[in-house]
Specification:
Number of helices: 10
Largest sheet: 8 strands, mixed
CATH topology of the largest domain: Rossmann fold
Radius of gyration: 25 Å
Distance between the termini: 44 Å
Number of strands: 23
Number of domains: 3
Length: 438
């Protein structure tokens, strides 16, 4: 809420939040939509949403305010009507599930809200109609931090169904757990002969720096390419130059807000993609085929991730065992260690969990690199206590795979065999130096 002095000034000029206004100060003039003032900001600062999508704050003392007769500017207001597609163009499906890529600023409240419809996103990228026709499906609308394995199961079934009528499928969702979803689709979609691209945005659609539009364009280029398989397509750099297409089981969000946050882990990108349609493959990628995709979605919900850290107590393992959990991913330090000596040793808790049929798997807390239980005595102790090592598999992928595996078997030995099987490129054959911090 604005200060009493600012509210008085706005009232004198008959200007309300959401109105179009001109603010003049120190010989400079700014025009935009008056935004509400959040509590954590300077309440004496007048905030305008400029036409380029950015907000500007001006201290109220000495300003000249003018209300314009124009309607409040909204970037999305420029695109109205319905996007028409050429029936002769290849068809793809865009499955929207929520997130920043389908969000915009509410000019009355100042908060981010969903677009009025999934189709509204496509109206902002009319050039898509030049080379594809698009079908939009919206199975649910949930911010990604609230997604569950039931959502992954539903999504996999929708994608498998849409692949029967489309050349490829693009899934848009919030970026917070986008890499989990990519891993889930990688395991849950069998006999995949077409590309499935998971994408999103770090900046909402009304912002001048929004990355969602280029991510969507590049994803569409992949959707009609000769590639197949599940991957994530996001900005390859902070600039609007190209995107990278990353294997769905070897990707991670590495920054809270950068547009190039999504990077390959222990892997190179599958390809670089430019908005003009140029695709540069960086490694061997499965070719498009006539295979008919099937959704294979059983999932054990009672799996967890526990990370090792100095002073961590082994009782957390006992807690999950008592709660009936069937699998635990241990985020191990270094080459695969957890506390093994002293009062905080995990060894007894690991042995107890193993005896009760809980499968404990180790993944690298370091993010990059691969585990090797044979180097240190501590690693050998963990392995002998029952921990199963997952080589260079990312923790998030390991968590998803463990739930998927335990959804198919009650046998711990069979589950170990399946965890060691490379189903979707989740385990690399060897480590390449150029993959570190790509």
């Amino acid at each position: 809420m604005y200060s009493e002095k600012v509210r008085k000034l706005l009232k004198e000029k008959s200007i309300e939040v959401g109105d179009r206004a001109i603010v003049e100060k120190n010989g400079r003039s700014y025009e935009g939509t008056l935004m509400p003032r959040i509590k954590s900001g300077d309440t004496n600062c007048i905030v305008l949403k400029l036409d380029n999508g950015y907000n500007l704050g001006v201290e109220y003392k000495g300003v000249k305010l003018t209300k314009t007769k124009d309607l409040p500017f909204t970037p999305e207001g420029k695109e109205t009507g319905k996007l028409t597609f050429d029936k002769k163009k290849p068809q793809i499906c865009v499955v929207t599930t929520g997130g920043t890529i389908t969000s915009k600023v509410d000019y009355k409240t100042g908060g981010v809200t969903s677009l009025s419809s999934p189709e509204e996103l496509l109206l902002k990228v009319p050039q898509l109609a030049d080379f594809v026709k698009i079908r939009v499906v919206n199975p649910f609308n949930t911010m990604s931090e609230s997604l569950t394995h039931e959502d992954w199961q539903k999504l996999a079934k929708v994608v498998a169904s849409e692949l029967k009528r489309s050349e490829g499928v693009i899934v848009t969702q919030g970026t917070d757990t986008l890499h989990y979803t990519a891993a889930a689709l990688s395991f849950m979609l069998k006999d995949l002969g077409k590309p499935v691209i998971v994408t999103g945005a770090q900046r909402s659609t009304d912002r001048g720096s929004s990355d969602g539009f280029m991510n969507l364009i590049c994803s569409t280029k992949i959707a009609v390419s000769d590639m197949s398989g599940v991957g994530v397509c996001m900005h390859g750099s902070m600039d609007d130059d190209h995107c990278i297409f990353i294997r769905g089981t070897k990707v991670r969000k590495m920054h809270t807000s950068r547009r190039d946050s999504f990077r390959p882990i222990n892997d190179l990108p599958l390809a670089k993609v430019w908005p003009d349609g140029k695709i540069e493959k960086m490694q061997e990628v499965p070719k498009r085929s006539k295979l008919i995709a099937k959704a294979d979605t059983p999932f054990e919900s009672k799996v967890a991730i526990i990370k090792s850290y100095p002073g961590c107590m082994p009782g957390i393992i006992d807690y999950y065992v008592k709660k009936g959990y069937r699998g635990i991913i241990l985020g191990a330090t270094g080459l695969g260690q957890v506390p093994t000596y002293g009062k905080n040793s995990w060894i007894k808790s690991i042995e107890n969990a193993t005896k009760k049929g809980v499968l404990l798997c180790a993944a690298a807390e370091t993010i990059y690199g691969r585990l090797n239980a044979n180097v240190y005595t501590e690693g050998r102790m963990c392995r002998d206590a029952g921990v199963f090592y997952l080589d260079d598999m990312p923790i998030e992928t390991a968590y998803v795979k463990l739930g998927w595996v335990l959804g198919r078997t009650k046998s711990v030995e069979k589950a170990k065999e399946m965890m060691a099987t490379n189903y979707a490129g989740e385990m690399g054959k060897r480590s390449l130096s150029e993959t570190f911090l790509y």
